[in-house]
Amino acid sequence: MRTLFKNANVITVVDENICRNTDILIEDMKIIKINRNIDDKVDQVINCEGLYAIPGLIESHMHIMYGDSDSIYGEESIYKAYVAYGVTSMRNMSGNMQYSPGDVIIDTFRLKQAIEAGDLIAPSLVNTSNIFDGDDPYQKTSKIASTIANAKYALEEALRDGADQIKVYEHLPAEVFDYICDWGKANGVKIVGHIPKPVDKKKFLSRAYTLEHTLSLKADEVDLMYESDTIWVPTIIVEQNYDYLLNKKHKRFLNSDNMRYILPNRVASWSMLAPSLYLMKDDPAFVDVKISRAIEKIRKVYQSGKEVAAGTDYPNPFIYPGISLHDELMLIKKSCKSNYLTLRAGTIMGAKALELEDRKGTLEVGKDADIVFLKKNPLNNIRNVKTIEKVVLRGRLFNRNDLDQLLSEAIVNLEFI
């Protein structure tokens, strides 16, 4: 199937230039030509005059959770919402989830296969392993790797489960972290996640591929990023939301129309948390939460010449599939002051975090046909990423009516319609 998109304003993200009135020719799932006045024989022609073409957006940090059924694919409704909001790739940071022996195991490896086979409408998927943690794990689903022997077994299991990256966490012993990093280097597998408390932060940043969350580094530690090749995925929106909640600004969330995409039990949980979280303002877990400080940290990263990748940490409280990635980009814009660099955070930097930069993140010949067509220019205002008219997901075209239908199918909470 050959489809020609005619007369778009193409923002490749390779640089800041706009290729005006330019055609994009795709065949099956790949971009095969980008040029003016392409006259090749094609199966269909799509008029894109006046629209702005950008690479598909990339969600660099989210969690696949249980839905309202026993599907091994998890919360299937959110995948449609992600696509409708222009997200064509995502990184699941949860591995395979099973909360108790009676629960269905979410099989993210089979989910990835189903997506690639076209059985589901969903962004392309990269999976980390389950969390590798110490004897006091943060999550029930974590792999306890308190010794090198434990870690060795868990790493072999993660490979069998199809993990693309290994996620480490805060209680991991230093010697086990070193072993995992050495194993990763030997096996071509990247190490990502949180900085274990026993591990020197500079050492972590010399060995890990991505670092998650703004709170991972204090304001006076941000300079450690300057000489590091580690990609920071700050998830600023999480700190913003907690800052609001800790300061009794929860009412802005409770009647949001976006709740229609959130399962009722999760809405109930968020709604109970929201009015009371301020009581934990002095808790060690929250004492450093401040959105202005988070934005300043990322500003320093950009001033050093480094960049970050955009992620949201869905489903943290009042984080919504797809929509919140747009909001994360607005927060990154406050930090870097550049629409172009912000767009890179949601495209090529995300592709790098997912290790997919050879296939995704820019509009170039040979790359996957993941394209978002916007009504307005995002280089004038990054908010214009919200003006989505069409999405091409691995070569499949979704017009505005199709996207609206996906959003309708993504609704799981009728109370907010």
Summarize this structure as a short list of keywords or feature phrases.
417 residues; alpha/beta; TIM Barrel; 8-stranded mixed β-sheet; 4-stranded parallel β-sheet; 13 helices
- The overall pLDDT, averaged over residues, is 95
Q: Kindly name the structural category.
A: alpha/beta
User: What share of residues are in beta strands?
Assistant: 15-25%
CATH architecture assignment name: Alpha-Beta Barrel
Q: What does the main sheet amount to?
A: 8 strands, mixed
In CATH's first tier, which class applies? Alpha Beta
Q: What fold name stands as the CATH topology?
A: TIM Barrel
CATH superfamily: Metal-dependent hydrolases
End-to-end gap: 38 Å
The count of DSSP E runs of length 2 or more, i.e. the number of strands, is 17
Radius of gyration: 21 Å
Q: Give the number of helices.
A: 13
- The geometry reads as globular
Low-confidence parts lasting 5 or more residues at pLDDT below 50? none
**Helix and strand string, N-terminal first?**
EEEEEEHEHEEEHEHEHEEHHHHHHHEEEH
How many structurally independent domains? 1
